[in-house]
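INFO  loader      accepted 1 record
INFO  loader      residues=306
INFO  predictor   begin
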Amino acid sequence: MWITSSAVGGREPDLGGNGRAHTLDFLTAPTIATTQTDWKRRYRAARVSLPTWARDDPDRLVYTSNASGKYEVYAWDRATNEHRQVTDRPAGTGYMVPPRLDPAGKRIYWFDDAKGNELGHFRVELFGRGGSEPILEELAPAYSARIAIASSFEIVGRSRSDEGTTIYLVRDDAAPKLVYSHPQSAAVVGISRDERLFAIAHSEHGDSRNRALRVLDLDGQKVAELWDGPGKGLEPSRWSPATGDERLIVLHERQGLKRPLIFDAATGIRMHARSSSRTTIAGEASSTGSTSRTSSSSGFRPSRAA
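INFO  predictor   done
INFO  writer      dumping tokens
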């Protein structure tokens, strides 16, 4: 989803609910003359993606914008209302592989390919200043199979026609550790809140359009698996935000439409949404301010994974 500068009247709406208005002066690109007609200015206005927050620091965000003439990555410190252009590459950055932040908001991750050919490496730099470093530089450039970022490590996915998919656990103080490898395509989905498990969507069965879900530990050992069979895909999404809760939301196609289920990696139990019921997701605040765990009475019915 994108926001144009003309759509917000030259100002960024407050995205944090704290009553502060934040100006985005850089969106008034010099190529948009004030003498141009309104409809031309709307079409030529800079575009801004919705931002991504740091999990543990809501004042630190990253987003992409084409205010410079091409899409690049920007860092936004809401505490000071400072916007910094992080990247400046000939073919642009962040449009195909969105930038990410670590949970503390201290590091920015973005994908660096060669002239937009999509073969490259992830890079990381500190939030407040430039000077990026490549991740897995010793390996050949590859397509991104996504990245999941924890407090002290990253799960980095890469894909090449001559290697298939490889996924590495990367720490600052240790050699990269291969935790997954297969000739078929796969992608990293995310890391559990306690940072013990991570999920991937894979096509080891040979159908990259209709993938299966696998949950692995940091040694690459399979913890749980979910597959709906030929012609039915699964799209793993968010892990529960509650510490110790090893469930994640998964979209399935069992009724011909994409619908959510909640999969518990610890027990193998999956809970299917009842379309007429309102659902409370694990870790979501209730009216009393506490967090709740979904039960079959909350709009999901349980079953055990095959």
